[in-house]
Amino acid sequence: MGDFGIYNIKNNALVLYPLRQTTWIGDNPLNFIKKIFTGMKRDAESESPVVVEEQQPVEEEAGAPEPETNPGFPDVRRVLQIPAISESIFPENSPAVLIKAKPSPTGDQCLFTVNRPLMNGNSWYFPDFESAAGSPLAEALFCLEDVETVLVCEYTVTITRKDKTLFDWVPLAKEVGTAIRGVVQAGEALISEKIIAELPSEEEIREGIQKVIDTEVNPGVAGHGGNVTLMAVKGNSVTIKMGGGCQGCSAADLTLKQGIHTSFRTAVPKVGAIFDETDHTAGLNPFFS
Hints:
alpha+beta; 8-stranded mixed beta sheet
């Protein structure tokens, strides 16, 4: 598939369509982009969009009572909840390969969700181009100039970009969407057979990660009153939770990505996705609230 055009902003999402199917309104694309923000729409829709979703505002849980104020005590901090998604983000049984992209709050990563399974029940982290050898999906993504790392997990691909100063994901998202769609439509195996054959057991992952937490991670964050707990293991993916001084700390994201992730992957090279389910808004120092 070729390049993408821009269609419309709807529900805080920017929808990208193939350029050959796009009809511009106005004398040039720049004028068209300006008109998008004033509410003008394109006449007809196209198929198989790549959607780049902006961060949704966090809404306060409905019906939550207002806390009573006491002049002798600090205000009670309320936990903000994101409403649950009640339906699938894709139409059911769609013959097209649909992709939705959602940049991270920090802007250095973007999560691409696909309506096709990419890796069943497991995940794999590709730190560089050499590690992608034999895995067509990762190879195609590393051919893009600004891709630094690739994480494939079931129906998703998480891309970390090289240029951390850029926050606009639209140009790279178009290229990533084209690459993912092309490999999926080819119908071949997406991940190396060698990787699939050598996937570790959940127990092996659990033992290795817990050992790292006990001997490296927790002793390291204890000086700041923090702690990390291993909450779950699914396949070779793990879920952790940060507590104490780490919960809500302004450096929590840096600690997670450069400290915890590095320790986990060094000690347990075959660990895949590392999820953090910490509610940072409920911490003792809620920097993210």
